[in-house]
Structures are given as C-alpha cells and as structure tokens.
Write a structure and sequence with these properties.
Layout lengths: L1 E6 L2 E8 L5 E5 L4 E7 L4 H10 L1 H13 L13 E4 L2 E9 L5 E4 L3 E6 L5 H31 L5 E5 L6 E4 L4 E5 L7 H13 L8 H10 L3 H10 L10
Parallel strand pairs: 2-4, 6-8, 9-11
Antiparallel strand pairs: 1-2, 3-4, 5-6, 7-8, 10-11
Length: about 240
Amino acid sequence: MTESIQIGDICIAVTRKAIKNVHLSVYPPEGRVRLSAPTETRLEVARAYAITRLSWIREQQEKLRNQARETPRDFIERESHYLWGRRHLLTVLERDTKPSVAVDHKRITLRVRPGCDHAKRASVIHEWHKSLLHEFIPPLISKWEPKLGVQVTAYFLQRMKTKWGSCNHKVGHIRLNTELVKKPKDLIEYVVVHEMLHLTEPTHSDRFISLLTDHFPTWREARAELNDLPLAAEDWRE
C-alpha cells in the first residue's frame, strides 16, 4: 500500500517493502518524489527522514526542471539524431521497398515507402535502435558475468520513463531503457554493470556501493555524465 506525506509544497509517496534501508528517489520530468521504506517503518519515521533530505530533494527537482530535453523528433530530412553519443543528420529516402535504416559516421539514412507517416517512421527507427542494442548488450553481459560472479538468465529492452535500467534478482533478469542507444557506449556499460550487480545485492546498500566501486571505479562520473545528457522528448502522462 502506498501512503503520502506532505512537507510544505512537496508531496512524497511512501511505499513499504521488504528492504533494510530507506531509499528516496526524485523522478522526471517535474520531480515526483517517492520514499521506499522497510515494511515496519512508521509514517512518522518516514516523515522525519524525508525532512532531513529536503534540501537534497529540492536540489534534484531543480536539476530536473533545468535539464535539457530533446525536442520531439519528426523523422524528416536533415533532422538531428543521436547514436552512441554522436550527432547524426537524418536522410529520408522514399522507396517502394521494405523499410530499413543504415548509418555512416555522419548520417543516418531511413528508407521508407512513399507516403509513410510519422508513426511508421518512428517505429522503424525504434526497431533499428533495439537491433543495435541486441548486438551490443550480450557481449557486455558475457564480459561481466565472470567478473561479477553472476548469471543473467535474460535481458529485455523497453522504453522507460524514469530509469535507465532495472533488475529482477529473483529470476536473474535485467531490463534496459532503449534510449541508451543514444548515449556513449561507456555509459551504457556502466548501466549494465549496475543492474547486473543488483543480481547479487538487490538494494543500493553500502555493500552494493563498495562492489560497484571495486568493479567500476568511475561509476560516479559515468552516472553524473549520463544524468546530465538531454532527456528524451516524452509524453509523461501517468
């Protein structure tokens, strides 16, 4: 069950879970706040904790409000699109053949049938993005499984509004945001390592931070760079 607490102009959703520590999160685009607490935590205790983090909450909300955001993509000629952290210009070719996408060092070429609408163009690009990630992610998982001492039984790609990845440690699954294809490859690797480590340590405990620091010493820099990059243009309806 989710309850809420109000501190000034900030409403915080409180969820109790079978966890050991309290976790506070601020989500885009407008800074929605959620506090996850151990099952037996009283609402008054959660409120007291949130009050101690008010300055951090406001700082995160301000950062989200000021963060650059991509304008919606129209998938038209000479529009800018990012791939692996680099900007490419889009070329659109209308041909009576199966839709396809190709890329070189400066340009992404989208081939679609004449009269193809925005939704279809977006779908073709999205499927292409997923195909690129399906080529890139498995070798990363294979590289890190022996290093971390874990096994990923399956991974999934999907659009995510509030996170870069997630993990179901009980079944060995990780999920990754398809928007990652637009980011530099070293930052994608950080996200993969982060989620894989959750297979052995489900929460962001001191042990998790210690393991992440041991295996990926530059994770703080990677996280900061990733979170400073423009957010996707998104319809944020709940």
